[in-house]
Amino acid sequence: MEQPVILIGLGANLPSQRFGAPLNTLKAALEELDSCGVHVIKLSRWYSSAALPQSAQPRYVNAVASVETALSPEALLEMLHRIEHEYGRLRSETNAARVIDLDLLAYGDVVRSDIPPILPHPRMVERAFVLRPICDIDATWRHPLLGQSAFQLAAVVDDADLYILEEANI
To answer: Which of 116, 89, 102, 145 is nearest to 7 (CA)?
Structure first.
């Protein structure tokens, strides 16, 4: 049986006490995922993006990972939240700067809007810092609700403020 395509968004714009720079924190989180049975199959390039909505916050570091796991969507989301908490994420206000942000973007063809996790992630199609990294992984990936490819979705979002920080090493 073919494994579902599971996509996790990674982001951070504040240094952490434990790992320092946002990029170091996110790389450590990838290692943590692997040690918990969530195996990274592909990783996009690392990008820099401005905060949304626009603010005086520092720029974000973003990437997307395609992973394999036996965990259910609920258990995977719980693990992502646990890692965020362990790495110093404080959930204070919406769109606040953060040490780490791990989002479950898609879990195969699962579509649901009634219980967490909402799948696919409801705002992913508006965000160049999600769509461009998905294109790095697989530009033909199709949004399970809209039926459009990552390439088609990325073509209509403004990515003028997005730039590559570093190539992936996976």
So the answer is: 102
